[in-house]
Amino acid sequence: MWLHMVNMQEFARRLSTLASRAFTSDDVVDLATAADVRISSELEIDASLAQRLLDRVSPPVLVTGAEIAASEWPPPTSTRPAAPLVAFSSPGAVDAPKDQPTRPRTSGAARVGRRPGSRRPGR
Predict the structure, then answer these.
(1) In terms of Cα–Cα distance, which of 98, 73, 72, 74 is closest to 85?
(2) Residue 117 and residue 103: Cα distance in Å, rounded?
(3) Count of CA atoms in the C-beta half-sphere (13 A) of 21
(4) Are 17 and 74 within 8 A, CB to CB?
(5) Confidence class for position 102, pLDDT limits 50, 70, 90
(6) Using the 8-state DSSP alphabet, how is residue 55 labeled?
(7) N or C: which end of the chain has fewer CB within 10 A?
């Protein structure tokens, strides 16, 4: 299995694209120090080390160590469509999007035959 790695400068650049602030190599060293990891500018960062560093980023970023250390950057986006938005109008109630078909509401299975408790005529 081939392990993907990035250098410290590339890790800082990728992290900067995800976070709300810019990261430098010095910031990566600070993250490593907080994670009890010895790091140098020559050290390549693999997925497990990247995850340990990402665990120290505040506020957290929505990427895994494997994604940030992957050879393909930025991480591929999902080709699956996003779930439709749901609006909450009151506690416990959900309003579905307007374009969904509506089904008639029934209170149970359709009943065939006579009603329970009815009497037959002539007895």
Answers:
(1) 98
(2) 31
(3) 8
(4) yes
(5) low
(6) T
(7) N
Alpha carbons within 13 angstroms on the beta-carbon side of residue 56 total: 16
Using CA atoms, how far apart are residues 35 and 32, in angstroms rounded to an integer? 5
Q: Residue 1 above 50 pLDDT?
A: no
Q: What is the mean pLDDT of residues 10-39?
A: 90
**Alpha-carbon gap, residue 28 to 54, rounded angstroms:** 10
Name the residue with tokens 């990728």: 14
Q: What is the pTM of this model?
A: 0.57
Phi, psi of 5 (to 5 degrees): -140, 155
| Rounded (10°) angle between helices 8-18 and 47-54 | 50
Phi, psi of 7 (to 5 degrees): -85, 175
Identify the residue with better confidence: 2 or 54.
54
Task: Identify the DSSP state of 60.
Answer: P
3-state secondary structure at position 33: helix
